[in-house]
Amino acid sequence: MERVPRDRDGEGRARNARPRDGLGRPLPYGRAGVERQPEGVVRGPEETLVEAQRLLDAGKPFHAHEVFEDAWKSRPEPERDLWQGLAQLAVGLTHAARGNTAGGARLLERGARRIAGYGDPYDVDVQGLGAWARDLAERLAAGAGPVDPRTEAPRLTLR
Fold it and tell me: Mind listing the pLDDT tens digit for each residue in 117-134?
């Protein structure tokens, strides 16, 4: 059996270059996929929220998760749980849209708990997002799913 070399970036780190669909699922090499979010982009909080909302509204919660992941890795320590929790909410919606309702519900609940103590920094609607996540998690546990990521996309901010 011939070994296929692993995809690597310029620094030798493993990177999967396979194309992906709109929910981040890998497609076979050679297939057309959805353009991926660039990794390691440092954005300010407002820019992060605007870009993530744009992606959520477009039905791309996996891509919004990647935007939040960049913020989680680049923001100061006191904010990292906020951005990690927002990433968990986005990936929870991703799993729910893919049909993994149990995993989606767990991630939604985990994300809601992680952001709960933050108030509303940067006008993030922490209370509203928590209610949205708990409601969707309950519906998933009751048998809903897969869900449409566009119609289920939350509003991130109070604005």
Answer: 999 999 999 999 999 999
